[in-house]
Automatic annotation (TrEMBL):
Keyword Nucleotidyltransferase appears in the UniProt entry: yes
Pfam families with a match to the protein in the record: RVT_1
UniProt-recorded name of the protein: Nucleotidyltransferase, Ribonuclease H
PANTHER family: RNA-DIRECTED DNA POLYMERASE, TRANSPOSON TY3-I GAG-POL POLYPROTEIN
Reverse transcriptase domain residues: 2-62
GO molecular function terms listed in the Swiss-Prot or TrEMBL record: nucleotidyltransferase activity; RNA-DNA hybrid ribonuclease activity
InterPro entries for this protein: DNA/RNA_pol_sf, Rev_trsase/Diguanyl_cyclase, RNA-dir_DNA_polymerase, RT_dom
Domain of life, per lineage: Eukaryota
Gene3D superfamilies for the chain: 3.30.70.270, HIV Type 1 Reverse Transcriptase, subunit A, domain 1 (3.10.10.10)
Entry's EC annotation: 2.7.7.-, 3.1.26.4
Keywords: Hydrolase, Nucleotidyltransferase, Transferase
Length: 77
């Protein structure tokens, strides 16, 4: 299934929190004694879409209209 979100992408705020560069992260870790890690492989699909924005994710199938209540992966292209 493919949903065309180009119109939604035009009004979406992009890069509000840009990802840090990997070499900057390694610089910050130098000299640390303790490290931890977290696996966020499925984390993206656990972020809820704001109630007022759910209708913007709507799409139609032969089984009826559907909406996403959790963030879509790679919505912005």
């Amino acid at each position: 299934m493919c949903i065309d979100y180009r119109e939604l992408n035009k009004v979406t705020v992009k890069n509000r929190y840009p990802l840090p560069r990997i070499d900057d992260l390694f610089d910050q870790l130098q000299g640390s004694c303790y490290y931890s890690k977290i696996d966020l492989r499925s984390g993206y699909h656990q972020l809820r879409v704001r109630d007022e924005d759910v209708s913007k994710t709507a799409f139609r199938t032969r089984y009826g209209n559907k909406v996403y209540v959790y963030c879509l992966y790679a919505r912005i292209v």
